[in-house]
Design brief:
alpha/beta, six-stranded mixed beta sheet, 10 helices, 35% helix
Length: 312
Amino acid sequence: MTDSNVIIQTHQLTKRYGQALALDHVDLSIPRGSIYGLVGNNGAGKTTLLKILLGQVFPTSGEYRLWDAREESARRKYRRRCGAIIEGPGFFPDMTAVQNLEYYRIQRGIPGRERVMEKLQEVGLAEAARKKFRQMSLGMKQRLGLALALLGEPELLLLDEPINGLDPAGIMEIRALLQRLNREKRITILISSHILAELENMATDYGFLSRGRVIQQISAKKLHELCGIYMEIRVTEPERYTALLEKELHRTDYKVLPDGTIHIAGLPEDVTAYGKLAVEQGIGLLALERREMHLEDYYMHLTERNDNDKLY
């Protein structure tokens, strides 16, 4: 049985290049209709994974499926429903945007000449249609790559570092475009990046890779609950305090760390009530502080913990 809500699923997917382990028993599940942020430092295995999904590289072991296809012959048919930017498409420098897209349209057997201008319009390059590729800015080249990926009307986009090297304005433009494609055309987008901040206003789900291993999969909603602003409380009797927290202040959205420190999501309007609760019940209040964790900090803590685990 397959889950119709999952568009990509991998099981123990492994890839070796000689003695080097690029992917280490990767299990991923990517929901249909999501913008899935694949996050990892350079060399984490992001590009290798995307190449395997596109059939450019074969795994050493493990398996994966696209939609409901597990066999390579069936996966080839489904790849016609995919668009991709992997390590930058090979455009001809002295050909215009229109000429480059027309070349690939004919090569791929995609019907309809009008589709070339439609895609340039869609990515905001209509006015630069007659501009040569070598004369384009980096942002325009990225947009042209995206137009090429969209040429076959894909249901799934696989994008490898598509906003790498862009200035803040360019990042915002590409982000808005991808969100619109996801929202209006229901295109599922798998986008890799080594910079979490580039994805935090766009991704609906995340997969964190480190040294070829998946160290966590998490929804954007859950990730933001774990990060952002929170209140840190340290008391002498954490178990009794949390029981009172639920009974008296009706808070259940807390987390107790192994050392007994209590984290409460957000910053309540009446912070003093939390200190008062401990004092009135004879519980020693050791600390009550406002804290903030950014998504980049969360990822760094996650990778450090994973690296430490691998030492044992």
